[in-house]
């Protein structure tokens, strides 16, 4: 399969090259040139497959030519063996026709493990094959960082640098990253917010000369297509468990960088009968404003009780816009330029097309806490603040009461003590494998929000001299 850039000015690439990069040279994001489509009969026949085999059926067309089928099957089986629930993604019913899809049974307790456990293995395979070393550079608002570290720390050919906003991730999130002391892991606490971290990562991808041509930079954020691809599978898995493809379903997705919900959109385009996708945001509601009022305006980033979604510049929205603008790369390049300058409006037909599938809602901290309390009182089930935003949005803008509504449970509540306690709930115990997390030694470096400083730190750590 070939992959093309959303800005239309970069050569098409095979999967292996897309895996081993971040942004396209024209600044765009890679997407498949064509998407596989699965007819209802084919999807129906997948109903009884275990998660790893379903993943194989869905992902194989995307990686064909990169890895042979047997090796890919083994890789997927190993990837999901690291999860602590036999169903991999259990569904928790919280009301009539209303469910939470628990995506937090991987090693770092957030949905990122689905893709990053696989990405580490794919990168290892590619680098071994090529006899190359690579440098991973990623930005995190808390969850991607630990999942990337956990997924890649055993990769012999990789140095990994993760930038998190200093003092703006939860204590559990920080410790999950900073207590991994392998020599190839480098945690940077940046004096800035998540957008600053992500901007610095993207700028470093655009100009990689600081690596002296001796290493390539690889992305672990959802700008890397392989991240998005792996997240498509659980939409199919949950739908199959609730009567799909013979029944329509809706999903509510706690949203920041628009990666997870974009995977849901792809599942829809690949044949899954999704009737509604809800973009659930916290007070950083730029996506809600553009979808509901056609008004894109970047406002200062707000710090909320759902820190992983404290994002203003939402990377993957560009991938959706590319489709909404009939894959016109030049139009997307112009629109992204306007957006990067802070303000934009969308073409009315493009927005109307988006609204046939997408709705949106923004939830503030008080409503987040109220939802955590409400669901606990109704069911005894404790939501994390990000999932609570998804549930609240689902209950507010749901179109069809007679179709299952699935909110993606994107993280375990134990990662977010502040929100749990503000909601008046008892803080749960850390799972066994993290039970001594607060006693472990931490290692990280605080750096100012300055690209030259960050890059020379990286060069010193990789090559031993600046
Ligand atoms: C717990 C949690 N929920 C939701 C999101 C938002 O997902 P996305 O960035 O794919 O929109 C994130 C971060 O990305 C997250 O860590
Ligand atoms: N919420 C994320 C932010 C980065 O998003 P990504 O999906 O593009 O990696 C985080 O927790 O780090």
Structural class: alpha/beta
N-to-C CA distance: 40 Å
CATH topology of the domain at 88-109 and 229-422: Rossmann fold
Number of strands: 16
Beta content comes to: 15-25%
Tell me the strand order in the biggest sheet: 4-5-15-10-11-14
**Rg, alpha carbons:** 21 Å
| Outline type | globular
Q: List low-pLDDT spans.
A: none
Instruction: Provide mean pLDDT, rounded.
Output: 97
> If classified by CATH, what would the architecture of the domain at 88-109 and 229-422 be?
3-Layer(aba) Sandwich
Would you give an account of this structure?
The protein is an alpha/beta fold and about 475 residues long. The protein has a domain at about 90-110 and about 230-420: Rossmann fold (3-Layer(aba) Sandwich), CATH 3.40.50. Helix content is about 40%, strand content about 15%. It contains 19 helices and 16 strands. The protein has a 6-stranded mixed β-sheet with strand order 4-5-15-10-11-14, with helices on both faces. Helix 9 crosses helix 11 (about 260-270). It is globular. The structure holds pyridoxal-5'-phosphate (PLP) and ligand LJ64HWYM.
Briefly say what this structure is.
The model has no long low-confidence stretch (mean pLDDT 97).
Question: What structural keywords apply?
Answer:
466 residues, alpha/beta, 16 strands, Rossmann fold, 5-stranded parallel β-sheet, binds ligand LJ64HWYM
């Amino acid at each position: 399969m070939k992959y093309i850039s959303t800005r239309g000015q970069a050569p098409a690439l095979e999967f292996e090259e897309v895996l081993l990069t971040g942004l396209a040279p024209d600044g765009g994001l890679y997407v498949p040139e064509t998407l596989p489509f699965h007819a209802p009969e084919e999807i129906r026949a997948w109903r009884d497959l275990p998660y790893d085999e379903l993943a194989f059926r869905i992902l194989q067309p995307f990686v064909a030519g990169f890895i042979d089928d047997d090796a890919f099957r083994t890789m997927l089986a190993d990837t999901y063996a690291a999860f602590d629930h036999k169903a991999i993604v259990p569904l928790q019913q919280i009301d009539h026709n209303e469910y939470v899809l628990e995506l937090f049974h991987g090693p770092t307790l957030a949905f990122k493990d689905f893709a990053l456990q696989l990405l580490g293995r794919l990168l290892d395979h590619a680098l071994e094959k090529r006899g190359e070393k690579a440098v991973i550079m990623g930005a995190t608002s808390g969850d991607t960082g630990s999942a990337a570290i956990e997924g890649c720390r055993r990769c012999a050919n990789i140095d990994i640098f993760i930038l998190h906003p200093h003092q703006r991730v939860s204590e559990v999130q920080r410790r999950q990253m900073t207590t991994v002391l392998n020599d190839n892991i480098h945690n940077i606490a940046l004096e800035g917010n998540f957008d600053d971290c992500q901007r610095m990562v993207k700028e470093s991808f655009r100009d990689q000369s600081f690596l002296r041509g001796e290493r390539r930079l690889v992305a672990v954020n959802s700008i890397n297509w392989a991240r998005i691809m792996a997240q498509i599978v659980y939409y199919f898995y949950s739908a199959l468990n609730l009567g799909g493809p013979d029944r329509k379903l809706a999903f509510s997705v706690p949203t920041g960088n628009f990666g997870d919900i974009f995977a849901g959109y792809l599942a829809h385009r690949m044949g899954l009968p999704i009737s509604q996708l809800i973009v659930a945001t916290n007070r950083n509601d730029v996506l809600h404003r553009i979808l509901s009022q056609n008004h894109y305006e970047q406002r200062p980033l707000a710090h909320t009780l759902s820190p992983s979604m404290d994002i203003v510049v939402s990377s993957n929205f560009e991938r959706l816009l590319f489709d909404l603008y009939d894959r016109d790369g030049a139009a997307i390049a112009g629109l992204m330029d306007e957006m990067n300058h802070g303000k934009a409006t969308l073409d009315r037909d493009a927005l109307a097309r988006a609204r046939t599938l997408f709705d949106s809602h923004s939830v503030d901290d008080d409503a987040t806490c109220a939802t955590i309390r409400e669901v606990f009182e109704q069911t005894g089930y404790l939501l994390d603040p990000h999932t609570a935003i998804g549930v609240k949005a689902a209950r507010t803008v749901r179109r069809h009461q007679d179709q299952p509504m699935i909110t993606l449970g994107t993280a375990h509540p134990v990662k977010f003590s502040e929100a749990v306690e503000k909601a008046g709930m008892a803080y749960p115990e850390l799972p066994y494998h993290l039970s001594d997390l607060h006693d472990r030694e931490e290692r990280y470096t605080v750096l100012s929000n300055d690209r030259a400083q960050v890059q020379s730190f990286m060069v010193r750590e990789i090559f031993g001299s600046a």
